[in-house]
Write a structure and sequence with these properties.
alpha+beta; two-stranded antiparallel sheet; 14 helices; about 55% helix; rod-shaped
């Protein structure tokens, strides 16, 4: 009996001490302190009743008549007193139950947050305030929010002319602990949505975007404004690159098909006999050697041979400018002195001013340029142009 009494009293004392500790820990919350004080009060009552119930177990029956009667009464009614102590202890626990439940929920939420952080998980739903701000103040893109996939949710889907961007919101604490996992999840979600993956780490200090080639993911720190600015810049760069690719593709196709290139049928001798010799010589002999004309024709044809359609190497010694229609003369009277292409040693000659002609008389310049074309040197023999004779340009023999 004595051992049982000691165990019960130790248990009640432990509950009381636990209430006291909680009171000290929750001093910042008056409501919690009041509840724990109430719980401790009931535990004090329970301890007092338990001491009364076990009093006969620790003492002998006194010889004094009144005390002896009390001792005898407690000896027979101690279970009832002990039950009352148990009830008081239960009331104390019940008073603290809401606080215990709240503490358990807090710990569970903390554990869940830690687990989500270790796994680099993004929020399941974007805050309503951020949604409204994006819709009201964001750039003129198409927006979708919290799009579900088998691998997780894409928080913000930004639709642009150059494709979609999937923004994966990664809190800072998740970035510290679950960064590798976040990269993998972001890549999987972006692939499922056919979009470019962007991990956004909200931070006061903006940083330069980093790209991860393995997962094709961009990681940016800063505000949502920084994200949209980066998307706008990237979209504009992609748009310009696409326009350049289309221009190069169109030029290459037109060059391969001989578009806007006049192919004449007269030979050089026949054409020169029909026109003023000096004007014809400026077009047929000197214009193909003009450095500015060569550069413009190379770009005009997209760096492709007008005969075979294949790309020409950057070396100027691998290709040449040929006359595709000799039935034409130079109608611009401006002249200049420069070193024609292919002249060794470098000696200046009197040449038509093709560069100024392009500015002052674009119609005359176009008439000449449409009758000239860049070709591989080897193609001049393997694939002769429709005009009779190759008639490749020669260095001018005029007066120095």
């Amino acid at each position: 009996m004595t051992a049982f009494a000691v165990l019960v009293l130790l248990a009640l004392l432990a509950l009381r001490e636990a209430c006291s500790n909680r009171m000290r820990r929750n001093q910042h919350s008056p409501t919690a302190v009041r509840r724990w004080r109430t719980a401790r009060h009931w535990q004090n009552i329970a301890i007092a009743l338990a001491l009364i119930a076990f009093f006969p177990s620790f003492t002998r029956e006194p010889e004094f008549p009144v005390l002896g009667d009390i001792h005898n009464l407690l000896h027979h009614t101690w279970p009832l007193v002990l039950i009352a102590a148990g009830i008081a202890s239960v009331l104390g626990v019940r008073a603290a139950t809401p606080l215990l439940r709240r503490e358990m929920r807090r710990r569970q939420a903390t554990q869940e947050r830690e687990d989500r952080a270790r796994h680099g998980v993004n929020p399941e739903r974007l805050s309503r305030g951020l949604r409204m701000w994006i819709l009201e103040h964001g750039p003129a893109f198409d927006y979708r929010f919290d799009v579900a996939t088998t691998h997780g949710n894409g928080n913000i889907i930004v639709g642009t002319e150059q494709g979609d961007y999937m923004i994966y919101v990664l809190p800072s604490e998740h970035a510290r602990e679950g960064y590798p996992t976040a990269l993998r999840r972001c890549g999987q979600i972006a692939e499922a949505l056919a979009a470019r993956g962007v991990i956004w780490i909200p931070d006061e200090h903006a940083a330069q975007p980093r790209s991860h080639d393995e997962a094709q993911i961009f990681v940016l720190r800063g505000s949502i404004v920084d994200i949209f600015r980066w998307i706008e810049r990237t979209t504009e760069v992609q748009k310009r690159m696409q326009e350049r690719r289309e221009q190069r593709r169109t030029r290459a196709l037109r060059a391969a098909q001989g578009a806007e290139t006049h192919w004449g049928k007269l030979s050089a001798e026949e054409a020169s006999a029909r026109h003023d010799r000096e004007a014809w010589d400026r077009f047929a002999r000197k214009a193909p050697l003009h450095p500015d004309m060569r550069e413009r024709l190379f770009k005009r044809h997209g760096g492709r041979c007008a005969l075979c359609g294949f790309a020409m190497e950057g070396s100027r010694r691998q290709w040449d400018i040929v006359v595709t229609d000799y039935d034409h003369i130079c109608r611009y009277h401006g002249k200049t002195r420069l070193v024609p292409f292919g002249v060794q040693p470098a000696t200046s000659y009197e040449m038509p001013d093709c560069e100024q002609c392009h500015i002052d008389a674009p119609g005359h310049f176009e008439a000449c340029a449409s009758r000239l074309a860049p070709v591989h040197i080897r193609c001049q023999d393997e694939h002769p142009p429709p005009a009779q004779g190759t008639g490749s340009a020669r260095p001018p023999g005029g007066t120095q």
